[in-house]
Every structure is written in structure tokens, then in C-alpha cells.
Amino acid sequence: MSQNLSTGPGPELEWTGERCVPWTTDVEVVYEHFHRYMFASNLVFGRRVLDLACGEGYGAAMLASQASHVVAVDIDPVSIAHATATYPGENLSFREMDMLDLSGLSNIQFDVVVCFEAIEHVADQDRLLDEIHHVLAPGGVVIISTPDREIYRHHQEAANPFHVRELDQNELHDLLAVRFAHVRLWG
Hints:
The protein is of the alpha/beta class and 187 residues long. Helices cover 30% and strands 18% of the residues. It has a 5-stranded parallel beta sheet with strand order 3-2-1-4-5.
């Protein structure tokens, strides 16, 4: 299945080193982000999906190639405008929204919620998980990724200024296990 992952109208989105854009020359960053969406795409066929912190929108477009409907949210209005223009689709919508306040989606229940490389950007991670839990349909699936602090720090010369609260595997597991009955970690 072909997907439009070109730069499209994308030049207004600058590669800052944090928000992944498909046209960056940092191949490692692109690989790390794309493989998460490729994995999730195998789990969303025919399902209603919420993509939190969707950024540039390429991942939501990947999910929409399999899902019945994808709502993708990001707090950055420039990213949402870019994503909307670059990845049009009848089953894909982009909304400017803070993932810490999903009340604008309270009338929708999602079968799958993905949140890739974003939980470390918020201090109130409990609130984020409460918001996810609120919009998740019974029997729904949450797929979250975050850098493992213990591994990530060994590969970084300095602390990432965009990260507010990094987690190790045990902390992530414990945070998820409070709300979700079945938690599995992969790395």
C-alpha cells in the first residue's frame, strides 16, 4: 500500500532535533519513529484510533491506511495545519489539542490509542494516562513508547531539553499498571 510521506507542503516545519519530520537527514530518528507506527499499523485494522502528539502527521497517515478512522491531535497549530494539508483522507482528521485535555473528544471512544515519544514531554503523566483511559473503549488497546532513561542517557551527551520527566522500564510499567490490567513492555 502506497503512502504519501513526502515533504509535501512541509517546508514550514523545521527539523529541530526533537519533532520527527520524514525529510530529516537523521536516519536513526526517522527509523526509530517509523517502526513504531509500522508496528501499530498491524494492530489497527478496522478500528477507531487516536494518535496523541501526532506531530507532522506521517504516522497518523500510516495508521489511517488500515484503521476505520484516525483522529490525530497535537498541541502545535503549525504541525496540525501542515498535517491537514499534507495527508488528506476521509478517515483521517487532525485537531489542535493538548493531550492533557481530551475533553473535546469525550463523545468518542477509541479502540486504539497511540502515544509515541510524548509521555516524557509532560510532568503530569498521571493526568495523561487518565485522559487516555477516559477515551479508550472497553477492551481497547493503548500503545505507548518512550525512551528508556537508563539506555537513553548513555547515548546522549547532554540531557534532552525537551524532556520533562523521563522514565525507566520499571517506572513506565508501574505507571501503566495502575490503570490498565494487561501491561507488556517491549524494547
